[in-house]
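$ fold --in a.seq
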Amino acid sequence: MKLSKNPNREEELSLIDDLLERSVAEVLPSKEALKEVLLSGKKLRIYIGTDATGTSLHLGHATNYIILEKFRKLGHKVIFLIGDFTARIGDPTDKEAVRKQLTRADVKRNVGTWIKQIAPVINIKDRKNPVKIAYNHDWLSKLDFEDVIGLASNFTVQQMLERDMFERRMNEEKPIYLHEFFYPLMQGYDSVALDVDIEMCGNDQKFNALAGRTLQRKLNNREKFVFITTLLVNPVTGEKMMSKSLGTGVFLDESATDMFGKIMAQADENIPQLFVDCTYVPMNEIKAIKDDLEKERVNPRDIKIRLAKEIVAIYHSWAEAEKAAEEFESVFRNKELPSDIEEISMAADSMTATDFLVFSGLSSSKSDARRLIEQGGMKVDGKKVSAFDEVIEIIDGLVVQAGKRRFIKIKRS
């Protein structure tokens, strides 16, 4: 639901209902308590913290910024916190082993493109109510050992060990490093330093956000709401929809064509939640779409095409979304080649299929190349390659396909 620049009271009430219904897994202490405060007209300070562990954001991240924009347009103060200090500690969330610690230079480099990526869904530079961008290095780096001991005194070791990731590692006799206990303390202190009313996070950060609620109550003598958003998870398999390792991530800095193709590759059962969390389609429409899908009144593929257009249009434009849809139809339904194929120069006369995939960048390693060939994902001028050591004759104009969406054309050099 998009909102006008100057929402009237009716729009505000509608947006508040939308905030508490859409993409929300849980609100602590309760949705009812938060709604009461929102209806009172009190202006709140709300933040979301993100550790810059990569250069690209995906649709799951974007859901949070769509929600933040709704708060911002209601006049609340929104803070986008970059965890340039906490990223260097390494939060074990979603990992069964300790995460690699990053340098501050790593973090600064990673965050370079983020603002551009989320600009389509949140007006960061609005003059009347701009988004505040903060870095937790500014206060966490100033804490001395006495301060850290003081923060730690608010929690017990038993409380820390209740975290599911730590509990699983203990059961599997895997190490838990002492510095990992500091992460909840540091993230919790962010709430105190920013003196916020609300922290927004995914369910994987609930433990850390509740640590912040404890510290905000003890150190600033005030309550903090924890607004937990839904994670994009396949309802059948339980796997994350946005997973780089599974090859299912849809990233915000991708081209319209790639974004469209990756959305079309999502499982049919993911369609309803992607509409809810990643588009502005009204909830009553989404409920009707879900009902149609469940009762098999529509072809899921047709609904997925609409979903892909809605999402691509947000990050590119409707014109590019339509073009991407046409390209998709041309390439995948009619088995035609894309209109714009990347060209690479090659001087070799011939190369094995495995070496070709690695040299051209179509595969990241020889094992990745062999896996692609085993799965029947490599084609040369439309002919499937079936052997790792099959010799590819390098000729001008040769078209090689890797997977469903990647094509290159050879230019002899």
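$ fold --in b.seq
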Amino acid sequence: MDGLFHSQRGYAVDMFALPLPVATCVAALVSAIAATLGGVAARGSTAVPAAAWATAACLAFALESAARAAGALADPATAASARLGVSALAMAPAMSLLGAKRPQHGVWQLIVASLAVVLVMPAASALLVRPGSLPDIHLLERGFLLVLSLVGWMNFVGTRRWAAATLVAAGQLAIIRPFLPLVATADALPQPLVDCVGGWLVAAGAALAAVQAFRPKPAAPPGPAALVTPPFLALRETLGAAWALRIAERFDTVAASRGWPCRLRFDGLDVGGDPADGSWHRDALRAFAALMHRFVTDDWLARHGHPGRYDP
């Protein structure tokens, strides 16, 4: 009777766990759609490759979840290798944004791809050299996965997309958990419930970011700030705080050297001096556009309120 109870209990647990990979697959597909929409919203900027990497990572996770639901990843070694491939692709979007400056942003994608190959090499070694064994992941790689996930989160935690970034980072850490420091891969996989929760956290964050990308922009302040603040904030939300702060630093250096009564803060252009003095406006707007052109096109600037000219 006790054996029958255990058998029935195990069957109940299996029936409960069976839909989880399917739900995870749906979450990954939702994330892929949201990432694609994010790429559409970011068109004309150097963030498009990062959106493409994010879409690829989500589709890979959906494919892995579908294979897991079909029972194709029952072998622990194969399952761990597949998850390491997904984890390597998951690091690509954050890495892509770190090199999102023209003209090297195109070549930088080769570096991103090389990083993904290096991260997945333990899985290739396990499958080709030591069939049936788990990937042997060095502590340095485990630490790098954790650091790069946190870097991607920190790049946006100071922006209006902090909630979306936090959801994505939390879900990502749940998905790559078997390869984090101090976690035994053999004991962490399979993790159907953790994968499902992580997948839907990423989906929620990606959907929130997509909604924010298409949301109507707030009214711009008057004067030259109307042509600087909206595109600057749009770039901050697209590429993250690191590049926004770099642009602000370069602009302020030029403004100080030329005596312009303005400074580019994290939340937009701060204008001082005589409001009637427009002698510096044209030069300041040209300098701002020149800095922005390292990341965006003229069409992108026009969509966000900077036509490239200013008539005081």
